[in-house]
TrEMBL record:
NCBIfam families: lysidine_TilS_C, lysidine_TilS_N
Main location: cytoplasm
Organism: Labilibaculum filiforme
Family matches, as HAMAP family: tRNA_Ile_lys_synt (MF_01161)
Repeat in keyword set: no
Main enzyme class: ligase
Family named by the database record: Belongs to the tRNA(Ile)-lysidine synthase family.
Keywords, alphabetical: ATP-binding, Cytoplasm, Ligase, Nucleotide-binding, tRNA processing
InterPro entries linked: Lysidine-tRNA-synth_C (IPR012796), Rossmann-like_a/b/a_fold (IPR014729), TilS/TtcA_N (IPR011063), tRNA_Ile_lys_synt (IPR012094), tRNA_Ile_lys_synt_N (IPR012795)
UniProt name for this protein: tRNA(Ile)-lysidine synthase
Residues of the Lysidine-tRNA(Ile) synthetase C-terminal domain: 365-439
EC number: 6.3.4.19
Length: 440
């Protein structure tokens, strides 16, 4: 094992011998064996341990064990306590995901502050096979089939060539003590279900399933490299930037094999998920004007391009107009007048002036940019019309769409500013008070 880990470190270029490594040690066999192997390579190590407080006294026992192990090896020791359940509840994520976020964030803090080059974690060959199965069950692309990377940023995984059985044999042969985590035998967590329920069935089909999965993962990684190169080559002809926008050519996208995969690689970085990208891909042969949103960006299906832009504060902010407001300076300049309805009242012909039945309005009014799904009842019509369809009918340019503001009473659109009023707020024979807005 010592020769094999040295060869793996060199082949994967994990680190140089003179670089300091922070070793994440839980107390289990994998991390304890990893620490032993790295120390025998005469690597300068520090030991980091997280107490997640998920197993009551056992968690504290793990802490004492790892602390004493570091002391016996005369290594620097770092530890931290986490309220993992509270963090998971606050962030609405699983315990597994909470523990992962907490430990990796803390590892990076210790690494940077204490001058370590990398953080070594104890994932082994069995973890690779389990990860691929988890990804397949949840849904994955080619990246999810390539398993766990031996080196990702500042995280290194020196034990990936070794199955857990070999780690146990090494520990027994070298009289290495470690802690048994009783939760590893439970099936409350997804990974444990794979380990204890799925893998045994696969081993009945193929007794060498773990070795087979390792070989498959290696092939998938090679396929991933080819895939990444093709995506990058096509990106050069497919995408360009304009000011703060990313433009993806729709005609060139149509010429490509697997346009969905290209869109995924281009857009997943901006928070778009598989379902979003499927919908975006379906719009390739559709009409222009459709908008798609992630948490941080919007994508417009224009005539020749998909146009990606960041959602700015202006695009999401709502401006309130109180009942006594007479003037507004931002984001638009408006003057507001409350009038009594008189017999000689003349409706203004200027599209930048709108008059409404004041008694039909619910204050405060809201002013915001339009969003996908917005609909109103254009004056003179009985039925509703989507704002996006109204834009198409009126042949709005992209710039006009982006600069269009809506006035709302409650959740109802009152006016597409500078263009069309809503029929529900029009002046009628029963109107006594008129709310007049002038768009300067």
């Amino acid at each position: 094992m010592q020769r094999k880990i040295v060869r793996f470190v060199e082949e994967e270029n994990l680190f140089y011998r003179d670089e300091k490594i922070l070793v994440a040690v839980s107390g289990g066999v994998d991390s304890v064996v990893m620490l032993d192997l790295l120390c025998k390579m005469e690597v300068e190590c520090g030991v980091a341990h997280c107490n997640f407080h998920l197993r009551e006294e056992e968690s504290d026992g793990d802490l004492e064990f790892v602390k004493n192990l570091a002391k016996a090896k005369n290594l620097a020791f770092y530890s931290v306590d986490f309220d993992t359940k509270k963090y998971a509840a606050e962030n609405k994520i699983s315990i597994e995901m909470a523990a992962r976020d907490l430990r990796y964030n803390w590892f990076e803090q210790v690494r940077e502050i204490s001058g370590y080059k990398y953080v070594a974690v104890g994932h082994h060959a069995d973890d690779v096979a389990e990860t691929v199965l988890i990804n397949l069950a949840r849904g994955t692309g080619i990246h999810g089939l390539s398993g766990i990377k031996s080196k990702l940023g500042k995280i290194i995984r020196p034990l990936l060539p070794f199955p857990r059985k070999q780690l146990l044999e090494y520990a027994q042969a070298h009289s290495i003590h470690f802690r048994e985590d009783r939760t590893n035998a439970e099936t409350d967590y997804v990974r444990n279900k794979i380990r204890h329920q799925i893998m045994p069935v696969l081993e009945e089909i193929n007794p060498a399933i773990r070795a087979t999965m390792t070989e498959n993962v290696q092939r998938f990684r090679e396929v991933e490299q080819i895939y990444n190169r093709v995506i990058e080559q096509n990106r050069l002809h497919l995408v360009f930037t304009r000011e703060n926008q990313l433009l993806i050519s729709i005609p060139k996208l149509k010429e490509l094999l697997a346009p969905v995969s290209h869109l995924y690689e281009l857009l997943s970085l901006y928070g778009f998920h598989h379902r979003d990208i499927r919908n975006i891909a379906e719009s390739i042969n559709g009409i222009s004007g459709k908008l798609f949103y992630s948490a941080t960006h919007q994508l417009l299906r224009d005539r020749e391009y998909f146009i990606l832009s960041e959602i700015t504060e202006e695009n999401t902010k709502e401006y309130l107009i109180s009942e006594d407001k007479e003037q507004l300076q931002a984001p638009l300049e408006l003057t507001i007048t409350l009038l009594d309805r008189t017999p000689g009242f003349q409706f203004p012909s200027d599209s930048k002036i709108a008059c409404f039945d004041a008694n039909q309005l619910q204050f405060p009014l809201k002013l915001r940019k339009w969003k996908e799904g917005d609909a109103f009842r254009p004056i003179g019509m009985k039925g509703k019309k989507k704002i996006s369809d109204y834009f198409i009918d009126q042949k709005f340019s992209l710039q006009e769409k982006e600069n269009t503001w809506l006035l709302l009473s409650g959740s109802k659109i009152v006016w597409v500013l500078g263009h069309r009023m809503d029929d529900r707020f029009k002046i009628t024979d029963t109107t006594t008070k008129i709310y007049k807005i002038n768009l300067i």
